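WARN no homologs supplied; continuing
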Amino acid sequence: MRLYNLLKLLSKDHEITLYSFIRNESERELVSRLSFLKSIHLFYRGHVWQPKYLFRALTSDMPLLLSSYENQAMKQAIAKDATEHHYDILHLEPFYVWPSIPERVQIPIVVAEHNIEYEVYQAYARQTPIPFIESILKNDVQKIKKYEEFVWKKANSIITVSDHDASIPGCVTDKKKIAVVPNGVDTTYFSFQKKKVDNRQLKFLFTGNFLWMPNMKAVEILVKDIWPGILKQFPKAQLTIVGKHLPKHMKNSFDALHISYQAFVDDIRKEYHQHDILLAPMTISGGTKFKVLEAFASGCLVLTTKEGIEGIDAKEGVMYLRSDTPASYISNIQMLVEHSKRFEQITKQARRLIEEKYSWDAIAEKQSSVWKQSV
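OK structure emitted
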């Protein structure tokens, strides 16, 4: 969503050539939606869990995250293109596509980071209960950190999505070349809808792709630790989980717990409008959470953790409610049920925040400024 919206708006003032990885041939059908780009070049990338990538990660200094991003065909195509045409900027999004960048291309480099990757994997490694696996993960984290810092030092400019993320590369390279360009929301596409909370039929929502470790960890906590307590307090409450790649074993208890699951929905806006509260018990920080921004824009009240709100300039108790323990989720929900005006006030303030700070038009202007300063 970030890349699509930024490219669409930036193409009004810039000529953009896109080099992108795809994982299956059906993705080529999406090219028709990118007519605003000058040209598009697609290259196949295999899934990372293959013997050749695992072997390389275990026997070299290349981390598993980067091992599947080295594509000789892409590297050669970029080198040829850069020789035949004039480009002002080579923009990498994010850093781990670096293995497919030609070594001798003399173009100012801008690196945009969605997260500080090694921090995300570091947090996941700490929460892994099996010592042997934890040891392997920690070793790979050090490799990621090494490569990430290497690319930061090579870059002319670095874009992060939050102040916290900006502080990390600032420890190893020039702080002056780091800019914050946050994630955002299409404020026209995501319309605000006022809700009336009914404690007899509370509707809760969780969204996320479960191949992303922070989402997987959060949904496990939600289903095992938080939701049973909510259901005990509010027996008619319903929880909807939306997102691809949820493990099958998690679905076994869903019927008994009043949980419905959809891997894919045609229009996520309907989910935000049809549910009262977004539950986002994130325990791994990094970047900013689109689910939180979209809920803010739509009028769906957000209960989340310190990690879940990180990178979003939202005031606790004014634009969202912080919940770090199962008991705090229940107490916050109880308060909202008893004080419906508070629900209305919080959702209105959250929408106002989106309009003032997180519209894609304003965010695209920030990125355009970074590009111009990097030439």
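The longest strand covers residues 17-22.
OK
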